[in-house]
Amino acid sequence: MTIWITRILFLLLCGLGGYGLTVLQPTIFSSPYTGVAVGLLFALFLILIDQLLRGFSLRAFSAITFGLLLGFVVSQLIDRSGLFETFEEGSTTRWLIRVGLFLAFGYIGMILAMRSNKEDFALIIPYVRFTPLNKPENYIILDTSAIMDGRILDLTEAKLIEGIVIVPKFVLRELQHLADSSDQIQRNRARRGLEILKPVKTMRLN
Fold it and tell me: Which of 86, 115, 133 marks a domain boundary?
């Protein structure tokens, strides 16, 4: 609903713009009605493009824009490289060559950009990393055996796992029970696990 309200307002603004252009520059259109009609047609044309681009993501649009920019830069470099100096500057042939270079490298740039991922962009633009803002949290739930194993501390310190470490209460109770066990091996491993949990539990790893 909000989009259609925006479109209607855009239509009205374009119509008013066409009318205002007729008033300010009477030589452009023969009558105010013509200016309003041209403004409305212009708005309808853009709304039609908007409908055709439905489902077109912002990422794809950004990739296409970047690809076009890259293609334009490459075409300009080739045009100024001296390869086409035999053609007179300002001639139709030279103009067609420039248009052809822009279309060719613009198309190639768009396709390559749309096929690329964030790692590829990081190679082209150093020190830039694309991180989603709505990245879901990664929860790591430890059980008794994982804690008693003892290697979880090494993994967290080495940043080999990412997320939030969670130790359920029943696991803590089981460890505390095993720490009072008559079995010396289990008792030692459980107590070591409890010691390991001090720097590990509730740790957020990025």
Answer: 133
